[in-house]
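[recover] target loaded
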């Protein structure tokens, strides 16, 4: 049964509904044993997101969120059954997107995992993550923040629902000062948008000053559906530039990878 919990304007025009889930933990190949996603869909609306391809979601990405209202109880049941190992929160959604302010499912799940001593890895684009520093300090937690650029204009175009870059860096500073282990992810790197080396070097320095222990960088991966979202939201000049580089110039990212060695670890 669908339940619209608030006026869509309260969530940036996103339609929100409550659903039930049968399981909380899924086997993961992302350097953890399991993944846990309290939501399906995301209010960030990132144009480059490939989550729809991974979960085979046919609805238009960025305009809906399904809230798995019973996931804390399902997780508690699974943990009682003896399931163990590390857990990544938010492999195909952001665990701290705007709806988390209202529902708090991520926090409730973290509390269950803390009780069992389960290590967690978190990746987000939201400053809301600092809300749960009290839990992170009491459990084995690696908290990662994606910071794709220092430009608010870039964020407005490509990540319209995410926290501004400066807010993300401040969140990293707060967590680092509180003793939380943090890392950062710069990506995807989009040709002519956030691949400027001067900006990337400054961003890398800002992240290190914020106490980040590791920095990872990745290139744009044009999964199914991403090009369609680009065509709908970006101008023709940008699209032509992407098409030339991504479909024809195989040396572009090879050369970029060499330049990025002093900033962090590339994963492409």
């Amino acid at each position: 049964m669908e339940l619209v919990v608030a006026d869509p304007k309260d969530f940036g025009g996103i339609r929100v509904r409550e659903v039930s889930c049968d399981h909380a933990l899924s086997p993961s190949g992302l350097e953890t044993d399991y993944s846990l996603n309290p939501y399906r869909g995301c209010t960030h609306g990132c144009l480059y997101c490939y989550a729809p391809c991974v979960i085979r979601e046919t609805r238009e990405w960025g305009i809906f969120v399904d809230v798995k209202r019973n996931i804390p109880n399902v997780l508690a049941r699974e943990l009682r059954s003896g399931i163990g190992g590390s857990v990544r929160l938010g492999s195909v959604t952001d665990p701290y997107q705007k709806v988390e302010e209202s529902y708090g499912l991520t926090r409730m799940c973290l509390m269950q995992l803390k009780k069992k001593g389960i290590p967690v890895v978190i990746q987000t684009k939201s400053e809301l993550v600092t809300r749960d520093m009290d839990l992170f300090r009491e459990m084995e937690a690696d908290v990662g923040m994606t910071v794709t650029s220092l430009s608010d204009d870039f964020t407005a175009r490509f990540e319209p629902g995410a926290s501004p870059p400066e807010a993300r860096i401040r969140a990293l500073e707060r967590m680092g000062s509180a003793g939380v282990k943090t890392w950062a992810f710069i990506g995807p790197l989009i040709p002519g948008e956030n691949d400027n080396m001067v900006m990337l070097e400054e961003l890398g320095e800002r992240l290190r000053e914020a106490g980040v222990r590791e920095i990872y960088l990745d290139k744009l991966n044009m999964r199914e559906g991403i090009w369609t979202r680009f065509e709908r939201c970006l101008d023709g000049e940008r699209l032509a530039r992407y098409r030339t580089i991504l479909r024809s110039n195989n040396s572009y990212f090879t050369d970029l990878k060499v330049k990025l060695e002093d900033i962090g670890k590339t994963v492409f």
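[recover] notes: The CA atoms of residues 42 and 123 lie 13 Å apart.
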